[in-house]
Amino acid sequence: MITFARQALRLGKLTALALLVSLSGCSGGGGFAVAPVRGKVTFDGQPVQGGVITFRPVAAQADASREAGKPASGEVGNDGTFVLSTYGTQDGAVVGRHQVSYTPVAKGAESYEDTPEPSPYIGLVPESAEVEVKSGANQIEIKLVKR
Predict the structure, then answer these.
(1) How far apart are CA 63 and CA 100, in angstroms?
(2) Cβ-proximal residues to 31 (8 Å cutoff; 6+ apart), any chain
(3) What ranges do the domains of the chain cover?
(4) Concatenated DSSP letters of 17-44
(5) Mean pLDDT in runs of 10 for the chain (147 residues)?
(6) Is this prediction's pTM over 0.70?
(7) Which CATH architecture describes the domain 32-146?
(8) Cα–Cα distances in angstroms (integers) from residue 59 to residues 18, 33, 79, in the given order
(9) 3-state secondary structure of 76
(10) Where are the beta strands (DSSP E) in 19-122?
């Protein structure tokens, strides 16, 4: 009976530890704070239709040996809007400086035999190569330009 009680106590401690570890990840994985990021991608003042926007954290010069955090990405809708996700769905991006990239998608291929229509956004890049994600809600517009 005493052995059973010890095992139950040990199991309870392990369960509590597992719960504590899983709850500590709510502020972002790897100890990085995340903040919600929404925005819009435009080209020549018009919303971009489709593609993927990616934010890659940049390590500070003074702390270049430290990992900067996990990249965030989001699909660009037909109205140009996006919401970033890093560790969970639409949780945002790691707080700090980020390199921004845009990847267009081809349209029109319904099967493997079809030839997709090239995106009109091929060759476009963000006007600002870097953006800052701050604590709290972030609304960021990404303007694409020709290289």
Answers:
(1) 20
(2) none
(3) 1-29, 32-146
(4) HHHHHHHHGGG-GGG--EE-EEEEEEET
(5) 46 40 45 94 97 91 67 97 97 96 83 82 96 97 96
(6) yes
(7) Sandwich (2.60)
(8) 30, 14, 32
(9) coil
(10) 34-35, 37-43, 46-47, 52-57, 72-75, 81-83, 93-94, 96-103
